[in-house]
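Re: that backbone. Tokens:
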């Protein structure tokens, strides 16, 4: 096996200017040609203009040519960018105008920007501005923030939205280091997916450096009235003033999780690990931006019950950010590995019963998802050609991927499998790999894997192999029994023994109830447990889903309040989908969506537009 050290040595010998040779263009979601000419560094100089809701910026890319790409133009991805000027320069030389053309715009991919480079050019400088509807950006007015006084901006680049705010090779197969200078109005603080210095004065001018090569989907920026609270020497929280204290308490176990992850999978190779709590319109639960996880405020439950999200985003520091999916068809390499690592971290910090509950909920969710999505979306190595990669995001890459790793762990034993995984992260560190590369590595380093796990079935067939693990939780068995007795009329809601139930047990209870409930049962449950008033976003969302399905009127106002205040796609999608199933529900969905839509992120809008028509 080639060690990272040897790779580094051989790299030095050839002075490292050429990235490793690649001979195929793998990614159907990028117009770029990294097989011929590849960006290695990005420098971004950027003004954040809140009044016009645009970024005005200059991006300078340092590129290297591969053999065979000597005369090739540089093709970049863009979406709705106004390109003002393109220049090129050789090593150490000065910039002069370069010829460029913007191709026709594709509804999913955006438009290719083709730059003709003079011989010897190694740097390309592009002056441009974004458009107000840029798919990565959400511009929030003060009322949409926690503090209500200042505006807020944040980006979401994954999967293919980086191109809507930076012209670049927007494919996870290309990795770049970056530097940036960002100017904001007044004293708004800007932070990026890099080490953020909490002591930097709030002058409206900030600079950043991400020294590790990362894929474009991990480039991130946010600006707002942000404060910092340290948790450990390398961990902390950024949030608006009304939220920051609460967030620091909720996430206080972060340092412990980081230690657990390192014991399992080797050193944390990024400088800091901070979290940024965003306003509630953030379209995801979390986003693993390097050194600065972006997180939804809906996980601030007050009792740390939803911090598996921190374990998840932290786990991406190994699976995803260190070893990266080369294309969106390989997305399960990011998410399946991450869910597996997330649960190993949770087990180490909170014990096995907690891990078992999370894993059991995961398998249940997967089975429900499999019954909803078409066969082609039940495949780990998914074909996304012609589709928006955001549409491939179901629980399949997450939970089916994690089950595959769990089955290998069970087949080979923990000691062996842990060693394998740790070496895998070392071997492919700071590289982007495909499913085929993983399979080759697996066969070589865990011989017999293909006999112990039906790999072809796992990776390329819908559904789950018969031998897939079935995580069980003793705590859940008891919960399900109570749900069954309540549903069957054996016991009243008041008699259900819920004393000491964790959030996970509540979630399992709700999921164990029959799809159809009587109005009396709904009312009884709500009276006994105040579910409509729950302050736990997961429990509330699950309850609202049941309420919509059973047309439980008393939850109607709360449903509207939830849908108009939270923009997390994972919550919105099932609720709107359930609503539109009946004619009356569809009317209600339209009515709520009309009010809610202006507050959602463009990514959530795209999803919900497809549901509420
Ligand atoms: N990287 C994902 C979020 C993502 C996936 C953004 C695909 C865009 C396209 C992140 O790590 C994630 O999986 N977030 C989950 C939470 C997690 C605990 C399962 C989410 O947002 O719900
Ligand atoms: Zn993830």
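Recovered sequence:
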């Amino acid at each position: 096996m080639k060690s990272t050290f040897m790779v580094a040595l051989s790299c030095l010998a050839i002075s490292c200017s050429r990235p490793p040779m690649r001979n195929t263009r793998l990614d159907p979601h990028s117009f770029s040609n990294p097989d011929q000419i590849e960006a290695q560094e990005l420098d971004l100089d950027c003004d954040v203009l809140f009044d016009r809701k645009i970024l005005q910026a200059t991006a300078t890319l340092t590129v290297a040519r591969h053999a065979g790409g000597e005369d090739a133009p540089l093709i970049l991805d863009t979406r709705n960018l106004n390109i003002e000027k393109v220049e090129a320069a050789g090593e150490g030389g000065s910039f002069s105008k370069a010829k460029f053309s913007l191709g026709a715009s594709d509804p999913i991919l955006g438009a290719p920007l083709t730059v003709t480079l003079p011989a010897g050019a190694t740097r390309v400088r592009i002056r441009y501005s974004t458009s107000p509807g840029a798919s990565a950006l959400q511009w929030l007015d003060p009322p949409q923030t926690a503090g209500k006084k200042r505006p807020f901006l944040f980006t979401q680049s994954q999967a293919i939205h980086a191109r809507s705010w930076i012209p670049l090779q927007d494919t996870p197969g290309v990795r770049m280091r970056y530097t940036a200078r960002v100017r904001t109005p007044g004293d708004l603080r800007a932070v990026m997916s890099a080490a953020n210095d909490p002591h930097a004065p709030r002058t409206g001018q900030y600079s950043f450096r991400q020294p590790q090569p990362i894929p474009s989907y991990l480039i991130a920026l946010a600006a707002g009235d942000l404060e910092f609270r340290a948790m450990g020497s390398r961990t902390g929280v950024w949030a608006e003033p009304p939220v920051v204290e609460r967030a620091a308490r909720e996430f206080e176990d972060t340092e412990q999780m980081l230690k657990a992850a390192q014991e399992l999978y080797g050193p944390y190779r990024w400088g800091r690990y901070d979290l940024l709590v965003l306003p509630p319109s953030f379209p995801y639960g979390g986003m693993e931006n390097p050194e600065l996880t972006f997180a939804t405020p809906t996980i601030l439950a007050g009792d740390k019950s939803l911090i598996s999200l921190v374990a998840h985003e932290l786990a991406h520091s190994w699976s995803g950010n260190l070893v990266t999916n080369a294309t969106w068809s390989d997305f399960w390499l990011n998410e399946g590995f991450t869910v597996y690592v997330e649960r190993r971290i949770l087990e180490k910090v909170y014990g096995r019963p907690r891990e078992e509950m999370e894993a059991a909920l995961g398998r249940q969710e997967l089975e429900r998802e499999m019954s909803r999505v078409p066969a082609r979306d039940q495949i780990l190595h998914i074909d996304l050609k012609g589709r928006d990669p955001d549409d491939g995001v179901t629980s399949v890459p997450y939970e089916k991927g994690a089950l595959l790793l769990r089955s290998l762990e069970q087949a080979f034993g923990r000691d062996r499998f842990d060693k394998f995984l740790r070496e895998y992260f070392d071997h492919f560190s700071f590289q982007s790999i495909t499913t085929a590369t993983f399979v080759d590595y697996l066969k070589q380093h865990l011989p017999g894997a293909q006999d112990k796990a039906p790999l072809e079935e796992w990776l390329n067939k819908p559904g789950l192999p018969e031998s897939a693990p079935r995580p069980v939780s003793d705590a859940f068995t008891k919960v399900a029994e109570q749900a069954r007795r309540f549903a069957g009329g054996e016991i009243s809601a008041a008699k259900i023994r819920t004393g000491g139930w964790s959030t996970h047990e509540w979630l399992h209870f709700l999921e164990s109830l029959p799809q159809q409930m009587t109005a009396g049962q709904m009312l009884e449950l709500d009276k006994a447990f105040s579910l409509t008033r729950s302050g736990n976003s997961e429990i509330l969302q699950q309850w609202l889903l049941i309420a919509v399905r059973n047309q439980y009127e008393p939850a109607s106002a709360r449903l509207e309040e939830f849908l108009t205040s939270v923009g997390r796609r994972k919550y919105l999608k099932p609720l709107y989908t359930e609503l539109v199933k009946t004619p009356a529900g569809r009317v209600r969905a339209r009515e709520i969506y009309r009010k809610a839509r202006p507050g959602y992120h463009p990514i959530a809008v795209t999803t919900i537009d497809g549901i509420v028509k």
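The pocket of BES (ligand 1) is lined by residues 158-159, 284-288, 309, 312-313, 316, 335, 390, 393, 570 (CB under 6 Å). The mean pLDDT is 95.
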